[in-house]
Design brief:
The chain is an alpha+beta fold and about 525 residues long. The chain is built from 16 helices and 19 strands. The longest helix is centred in the first third of the chain and has 30 residues. The radius of gyration is 35 Å and the shape is elongated.
């Protein structure tokens, strides 16, 4: 046995490493419990307790939505439409999209949800606009911490606990995860104190948000009596999407009672119908309202306060015709009578250097197969008619009947039968080339009641050329040659951003559906142009 002395720890004593291990384990358990308590508390205080409908007044002139605006912001800001459309229409929106947010992107993404709702009654200045957003759980906590900073001011507002952002000129309040903002303190207080009977209905709210999921923005606008638009429209529901090279929008218009009554003979029972494709040109209009052209013109003249038919179509047989008087054309009324219901009108060119700069027009109309008969009934020119007198002239070398007129060859109307349809052009010189372009009497794939197509670049060029001549002759009010040149340069620059724009209107029940599509100029390289709204 060894004589070496040994030192043994007292009973119950532990090594230091074991004690430290237990301390750390208990500390970790305490941290986990603390984190769990914090997480539960954070989730509880940031739970979604207030739906948007509890903060939106039932009486509002507009209700709009922005769909996932932060995720789509860059794509929308890159759209050509902001540079192509007039500054007065899109300038303010473009500046908001292109401005850098004051907060980091990750903070903004947590404060602004996938759907923002905007409501109010001031359609002119939007001073009472109410903006609602659903914050994430993290965004709700960030807002709570932000209250400790100097950038917000507390406004008790009788216990409503508002916050004010002096730098932005906004008031806001938080209810659950719903963030409500407004530049108007009164509008925000009203939203926070709504009685159940004063809140927007679930059906109205869903109608505002009715969409396919592809739209960037949309909503419903209601026009109250006294508003300038109330004479025409009762409500407008719309949705829009902006891509870098394409802008698309849809709208549903409910006409006012006065408009419904004024146009009842045409609107009642109106449905989507076949539309003639406008002849290619800088602008084209196609219409089919299930009514003869004569009825449409009469109703339009009545609504505008004009006389119908014009005096030139109804000569006074009791008055002796003076050789110096302009001749009348009663046979034109015979052409208009059976025309329609499908009619199309295009601006196919421009004559800037005649007596008066004017567009060259081409009209094509259904005639129920009577075009040849109608043209054959047009009276021949008297044998003693002088070459420049405005009587219908026929030629064996041309399918057209043309009518000499003062103003140059670009303003000699010409008529012909094309596939049983009546073709009328304002320029006999352009009539032949028009026929050589190919089949004219063809129909669009998409049915509707009115279709409009514009190619801005050639149209603006024609307008600029006319304006330039008038400005040089000091006949353009408010502009001389120099000031108009600057204005024309801006117009041309904006028009050059767009290849074409097209709009289709369709009557559906008691509403009018409007579809708009604007295509950027660079789309020319993507394929052939289309004449239909997709």
């Amino acid at each position: 046995m060894s004589d070496t002395l040994r030192s043994l720890p007292p009973r119950g004593a532990q090594r230091p490493s074991v004690r430290r291990s237990r301390i750390w384990r208990r500390l970790r358990q305490a941290v986990v419990i603390l984190l769990l308590v914090v997480a539960v508390h954070g989730f509880w205080v940031t739970r979604d307790t207030t739906p948007f409908t509890e903060l939106i007044p039932a009486e509002q002139q507009y209700g709009l939505f922005l769909s996932d605006i932060m995720a789509r912001r860059d794509r929308i800001a890159d759209s050509f439409i902001w540079e192509a459309a007039p500054e007065q229409i899109t300038g303010r929106v473009a500046r908001l999209l292109q401005a850098e947010p004051a907060l980091p992107d990750w903070v903004v993404h947590n404060l602004i949800s996938s759907t923002c709702y905007l409501a109010g009654n001031d359609l002119e200045h939007f001073e009472d606009i109410l903006i609602l957003s659903r914050m994430s759980h993290v965004g709700t906590l960030l807002e709570r911490y932000a209250r400790l900073g100097p950038w917000t001011q507390r406004d008790r507002a009788g216990g409503l606990n508002l916050r004010r952002l002096p730098g932005a000129g906004l008031y806001y309040a938080v209810r659950g995860r719903t963030l409500a903002l407004s530049p108007s303190r009164d509008a925000l207080i009203r939203a926070l104190t709504l009685r159940p009977e004063d809140m927007i209905s679930a059906e109205h709210y869903e109608t505002t948000l009715e969409r396919s999921g592809l739209e960037d923005a949309g909503g419903v606008i209601m026009f109250e009596p006294g508003d300038p638009m109330a004479e025409w429209l009762h409500t407008v529901g719309f949705a829009a999407r902006a891509e870098p090279a394409v802008f698309e929008a849809r709208a549903r218009l409910t006409l006012s009672e006065d408009m419904e009554d004024a146009w009842a003979p045409i609107l009642n029972g109106l449905t989507a119908s076949a539309l003639l494709e406008p002849p290619a040109g800088m602008a084209g209009l196609s219409i089919n309202v299930n009514a003869p052209l004569e009825e449409v013109l009469a109703r339009a003249a009545e609504a505008a306060g004009w006389d119908w038919p014009p005096a030139m179509l109804v000569p006074d047989e009791n008055e002796e015709e003076d050789d110096n008087d302009a001749p009348t054309f009663p046979w034109i009324a015979d052409l208009i009578g059976p025309a329609g219901p499908a009619v199309t009108l295009s601006i196919i060119g421009f004559a800037p250097y005649d007596i008066t700069p004017m567009p060259i027009l081409a009209l094509l109309s259904e005639t129920n197969g009577q075009a040849d008969e109608l043209l054959g009934a047009i009276p021949h020119a008297p044998e003693d008619a002088r070459p420049w007198e405005s009587y219908p002239r026929r030629s064996e070398d041309s399918p057209f009947i043309h009518i000499p007129a003062i103003g140059g060859p670009a303003f000699e109307p010409a008529l012909a039968s094309v596939g049983g349809h009546l073709l009328v052009t304002s320029s006999h010189a352009e009539a032949g080339p028009l026929l050589e372009r190919g089949q004219l009497a063809k129909y669009m794939e998409r049915q509707g009641n009115l279709y409009l197509r514009i190619e801005p670049t050639p149209l603006i060029e024609a307008i600029v050329e006319t304006g330039r001549q008038l400005a040089e002759m000091e006949m353009l009010k408010g502009h001389d040659a120099t000031s108009f040149a600057a204005l024309a340069e801006e117009w041309s620059a904006r028009a050059g951003k767009t290849d074409h724009a097209e709009m289709l209107l369709v009557r559906e029940g008691r509403e009018i559906l409007v579809e708009l599509r604007v295509v950027a100029e660079q789309q020319n390289a993507a394929g052939p142009r289309t004449q239909t709204v997709e």
